[in-house]
Automatic annotation (TrEMBL):
The lineage of its organism: Bacteria, Candidatus Joergenseniibacteriota. This is UDP-N-acetylmuramate--L-alanine ligase. Residues 359-489 form the Mur ligase C-terminal domain. It comes from the Bacteria. Residues 41-143 form the Mur ligase N-terminal catalytic domain. Residues 148-334 form the Mur ligase central domain.
Length: 508
């Protein structure tokens, strides 16, 4: 039988060592008996996208949830409101409900008992305290899991998998570390056997240095491109790859590893993870078992997905950039190998996929200026977003509004990244992040970052506030410009203010 012929035989799957009794909760969702004795859970730091999504999973399962955070901004703010998850602004001991069974504490640097009274109270109560990846591990323990990991692209690939499963009317579970347009939510607890999870190599909590994905129970892995990231946690490329290598050892004997060939560290990982008991398939734009061919770029881009040179299916997508095609090929690699869907249904699902918020989503249709927001949390993500703008809008002047929000961007070891990351931009508007400057010896100053960018990008303007940046755009923006917003932080509200400015100045 061809790898791509949909089998009618029901596949038997057993994750040895993890068989537990399941019971139906009052909302009709199947969960682990032992864990779901929990009636009420409180999330400290609920404003994180992973924390809020995990809170929804527990609420889906019949648990009463609440939370607190110092500040929550969109799109998580909208997510909490939409799913009626209550939360309190600022941290205080009295935020914790009296009859609490579980407290989930986020990774934010402010969430430590020495300086946060709510966290200190949580540890003093004698109730169960967990990180959100520990909760995900419990919720997914008895499922056949597909864990998506990698340096970039994993949120989009996870959303692609979840969207395709929903289009097949299958009631599977999923957790996405971002807010998607499709599917309609970032997390869902379902009755189906599959659970798609976005995994992360970053430490699980302020008290647990293990990578988040090591707390999950992978049945299969999809590994997006790998490149050295999080220098403050993983000083060397070898340090960075260690948790990924450990993750592979957690797979059952019949587990599938679908891995991209095209990251700087992907080759080293592929060589290390090939073992007799695990099936490894590779994918990429132009290298791997699964590839893209005959690409026709446009507002809707079409291309063929091939397997070892054989055309399997032609798909169409409105997603921008080469990295988006790479993501779609990765989704095909895992789906077709495990035999979850057939090529025709896969193509139908891809054509209706609308992507994620803050992943090159267009901010306005009411101005002649093209404005997109990308997730600029790392060098590779910023480079791929800028390359997508150049690929699709080569005739337009590109203005990049950039906030170095993550510690990775502000680490002194990352200064070299600024030498070429903005090479294809005509103008860079650099915004000082709110949390910049904590006295860390390894942290570069805002002035150092600005100076480094200016060496290689002539038209670079550094701004202390959002107001300054908006005023500079008001003065410099043209009617036919393309503006790319890059940050993983709040950007002083510029994602809303810049489109409003463009709509006033250059209405469509």
């Amino acid at each position: 039988m061809s790898l791509f012929s949909r089998s009618k035989k029901v596949r038997a799957f057993s994750n040895k060592g993890h068989q537990k009794t399941v019971a139906k909760t009052r909302r009709g969702i199947y969960c682990i008996n032992e864990f779901m004795n929990i009636r009420r859970a409180h999330f400290i730091g609920i404003g994180g996208v992973g924390m809020s999504a995990t809170a929804k999973l527990l609420k889906d399962s019949g648990v009463i949830v609440s939370g607190s955070d110092e500040d929550v901004y969109s799109p998580v703010l909208d997510f909490l409101s939409e799913h009626e998850i209550p939360w309190t602004t600022s941290y205080a001991a009295e935020n914790i409900p009296a009859d609490i069974d579980l407290i989930v504490i986020g990774k934010n640097a402010k969430l430590v008992p020495e300086t946060n009274e709510e966290v200190a109270t949580a540890y003093s109560l004698g109730v169960k305290v967990m990180s959100f990846p520990e909760v995900l591990g419990e919720l997914s323990r008895d499922k056949e899991t597909i864990v998506v990991v990698g340096s970039y692209g994993k949120s989009t690939v996870t959303a692609l998998l979840a969207h395709c499963m929903e289009r097949e009317n299958a009631d599977h579970s999923f957790f996405i570390g971002a807010i998607p347009y499709t599917p309609s939510t970032s997390a869902k607890t379902g009755t189906g056997k599959f659970f798609v999870l976005e995994g992360d190599e970053y430490p699980s909590s302020n008290t647990d240095p293990r990578s988040k994905f090591l707390l999950m129970h992978p049945s299969h892995l999809l590994v997006t491109p790998l490149a050295h990231d999080h220098f403050n946690v993983f000083p060397t490329p070898e340090d960075y790859l260690k948790p990924f290598a450990e993750l592979v050892t957690l797979l059952p004997e019949n587990g599938v590893v679908a891995v991209c060939t095209e990251g700087a560290l992907s080759g080293a990982f592929i060589n290390a993870c090939r073992t007799p008991v695990k099936r490894v398939v590779t994918y990429g734009l132009s290298k791997g078992d699964f590839r893209a061919a005959n690409i026709e770029w446009g507002e809707t881009t079409s291309f063929d997905i091939t397997y070892k040179g054989e055309i399997i299916v032609c798909v169409e997508t409105t997603q921008l950039g080469e990295h988006s095609i790479q993501n779609i090929v990765g989704a095909a690699a895992i789906f077709f190998t495990i035999d979850i869907t057939d090529p025709k249904k896969f193509a139908e699902s891809i054509s209706s996929f609308k992507g994620l918020r803050r992943r090159l989503d267009k901010k306005s249709d009411r101005t002649s200026v093209l404005i997109f927001e990308g997730f600029g949390s790392s060098y590779e993500k910023a480079k791929s977003a800028i390359a997508a703008m150049r690929r699709h809008f080569p005739e337009r002047r590109l203005i990049v509004v950039f906030e170095p929000h993550t510690f990775g961007w502000r680490n002194r070891a990352s200064l070299l990244s600024y030498d070429d990351v903005f090479r294809d931009a005509e103008i860079v508007m650099l915004l000082k992040p709110q949390e910049h400057g904590r006295g860390n010896q390894e942290e570069a100053s805002f002035d150092e970052i600005a100076e480094r960018i200016k060496r290689h990008t002539k038209n670079t303007f550094a701004h202390e506030t959002g107001e300054e940046c908006l005023a500079a755009l008001d003065e410099n923006m043209r009617s036919d410009d393309c503006v790319l917003l890059l940050s993983s932080g709040p950007m002083a509200g510029l994602a809303r203010l810049i489109p409003e400015l463009a709509e006033r100045k250059f209405p469509k």
